[in-house]
Amino acid sequence: MADAVTVRTRNLIKNPLLKRRQFVVDVVHPGKAPVSKEDLTKQICSMFSGVDAKCVVLFHFKVAFGGGRSTGFGLIYDNLDALKKYEPRWRQIRYGFADARSRSRKAYKELKKKIRTTWGTGRRARLRKERRAAE
């Protein structure tokens, strides 16, 4: 990462219930492409003492119009157990802490069909029509 990149954090909140610190990350990178999350993680680990790189989660980065500035959110969990407990599953998969479930094509189609069945009032109306047709 070049020296021209500046990383600042703001709105730092300690969240003891979720065992993490949460903050907004401002990245200034004039004339350069947006900085990778791996580089930002290293930079944030150096800013906060005693932080493991695996416990840092960065997401929702948006580049300002015209470039040169990016803003996103960051979380620093106290330990990996807290991260695995409170972080959404899709983000754990993205960071390599959980395995993605792979369903077969048939299982996916059956699940889709099951979701589309009618419930409630529509189901009652369908059953009523079937009974009348049977009579």
From TrEMBL:
InterPro entries: eRP_eS24_sf, Ribosomal_eS24, Ribosomal_eS24_CS, Ribosomal_uL23/eL15/eS24_sf
Domain of life: Eukaryota
One Gene Ontology term from the biological process aspect of the record: translation
Molecular function per GO: structural constituent of ribosome
SUPFAM superfamilies: Ribosomal proteins S24e, L23 and L15e
Keywords: Ribonucleoprotein, Ribosomal protein
GO cellular component, one term: ribonucleoprotein complex
Family: Belongs to the eukaryotic ribosomal protein eS24 family.
Alphabetized HAMAP family for the sequence: Ribosomal_eS24
Protein name (database record): 40S ribosomal protein S24
